[in-house]
Amino acid sequence: MEKIIIGTRASKLALVQTKIIADGLRQNGFEIDIKEITTTGDRIKTSLAESGGKALFVKELEEALLEKKIDLAVHSLKDVPGFLPKGLTIACTPKREDARDVVIVCGPTDVGAHGRVPLPMLPQGAKLGTSSPRRRIQLQRLRPDLEIVPMRGNVDTRLKKLEAGEFDAIVLAAAGLKRLGILESEGHCEDPEKKRRGRSNLMQTVLSGDRHALRARDDILNNFHSSQHIVHFEYLETFRFIPAIGQGTLALETRENDQALIRVLQKLFNDEETWIATEAERALLQAIGGDCHTPVGAYARVQGDEILLNAFLAGAKGEKFFSVQKKGKKSKAKELGKEAGEKLIRHLC
What we know:
Blueprint: E1 3-8, H1 12-26, E2 31-36, H2 40-43, H3 48-51, H4 59-66, E3 72-76, E4 88-92, E5 101-106, E6 127-129, H5 133-142, E7 147-149, H6 155-163, E8 169-173, H7 174-179, E9 188-189, H8 192-197, H9 201-206, H10 211-222, E10 231-236, E11 250-255, H11 259-269, H12 272-288, E12 296-303, E13 306-314, E14 321-329, H13 333-348
Parallel strand pairs: 1-2, 1-3, 6-7, 6-8
Antiparallel strand pairs: 3-11, 4-11, 5-8, 5-10, 9-10, 12-13, 13-14
């Protein structure tokens, strides 16, 4: 195979993620074409939960695969439904980025050590933007007084809304901010001018010299004008704020019968620990029949020959909340995820 057509959404983050894969393939002698595809999820303005869920971000890409308009689709794994269309498969999962969520505050506020803004230090009744049922339920358990307000849009849109004062804080995935080079440290980011001049460690090591990533980062920061206040970040650690299933992971989806391409992708990009961990998480998703409407989170990590899985499942309004922790042999990751999902369903029902 000499030429590969890669399909991707047209957002800045999606293009940066796709170009990571494209560059790796080019370095191994493949000719690459990138086809930008606008998905239903990109077009709709209403809540994803009301319109069909995160699957709307992959639907048109999967159709293009089945119609042989593209050879490979690059997704954020957290957007991929538990069950794929017949004839398609996830060929591999590259090494997982930071799976944590991040609270972002722009403006004068009390801060903790190292410039962090602990969630408890947000003002009483603060308005926090997120449309994720998973985030909403967990935030309400940590801070029942917060006003959780729906929020749609790409990273740059959400940052603009924060700066405009529509929200006191927002929650985003750390992985996307790191891939874009916006998140610079474990505590805080300085003013945008400093961010324009600097480069994160991740950008230096993973996207070194990638003009597309740098341009995407600069486009976002040029439109984020809050130079009078420091932009504060706080990571929400996975043990107390469970991520979305697959969060921080890219999924490379192909046709099942494209075995030559699958072998190439697995050789160049697959990370065994990421594959095993997300296999357990997605087995849980399949067991509960979860989608964008479902407040569910799961995070697995490999520890030697074992795998540890933490997960929760809640009622639509958080009236019920059940968590589970399971540990087992990593060779039985799918079985462990399935058992955890079934246990959560039994408790919720």
